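Database export, one record per block. Field names are fixed; values are copied verbatim from the stored entry.
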Amino acid sequence: MKIKLIKAIYIIALLIPLGFVPPAVCRSLPALVETGWLANNLNAKNLVLIDTRTANNYKVSHLPGAVNMPYADWNAYNDDEECQLLPQSTDLTKKLQALGLNSDSRIIIYDQGNTTGDATKGSYAVWALEAMGHNEVSYLNGGFTKWTFEGRIINNKKPTPQPGNFKIQTNNSRIATLAYVKSHLNSKQVLFVDARNSNEFFGTHKRADVARYGHIPGAVNLPAPFLNNAGINRAPAVILPLKKLEAMAAGMGIPQDKNTELIVYCNTGQYAALDFFVLHNLLGYRNARLYDGSMLQYAVQYKLPLVKYSWGR
């Protein structure tokens, strides 16, 4: 056994100079889970299914065995920072443990699955759990809508799980703070990715609660609504095939080198979460971070630069 391990390490050492980098985390589930697989594995060992819809929607009906933690519980308005950020770890720990979450749980997140907005909420929960140090987190493609369109079983039974043992161990490699953003504004080693709509990126439009127009200098625009087929023929919000996502990322100016460091942002961190999920979890940009303060936080820092009337790089 020891000899095999030494050989494996030796082979990896030889491959790294050739551009091969072993994955940082060995997953037992794919990052993107399909409804057909889940239907056959609802009773799989250590599986925890988390519904991120509102409590009222969950109460009416949900996937069998699912527990509920609405999107609003995954972030909180921070008065000091004037933006939405992950809540205090003590608050989140209690909520997650009450859902039966353990350190070895295999988590599948799902949302309503109707719109891009739905997909961004589920993606944010995936990112939040990864930022809290849980690596076995997957996203259900198409969510509740795709599941029900396919005629699969739903119910309104609320499970009563045993309290879990999960404890938050913050993974700072997933998070870009305002300080981190400031220190990398002029870095040629970092690419900012703006997940907002193109008119907000260009600087002709903005949300009412965002202080200024424009985008972070050097950023490229990869609008979150481009990444799924929400609204097309009333279809569920299913994420596009990998080949299309790869081509779209390249076309928007994101380097094909998967070691490139990316900082993804939007207005509140919500839409950026879908970009992060696609870039990091599906396309393999292992050095991606999400700036959850995003433009709500950045734009009120009036000494920090913004660019208008430009398509970026």
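Remark 1: The longest strand covers residues 47-51.
Remark 2: The longest helix spans residues 116-131.
End of record.
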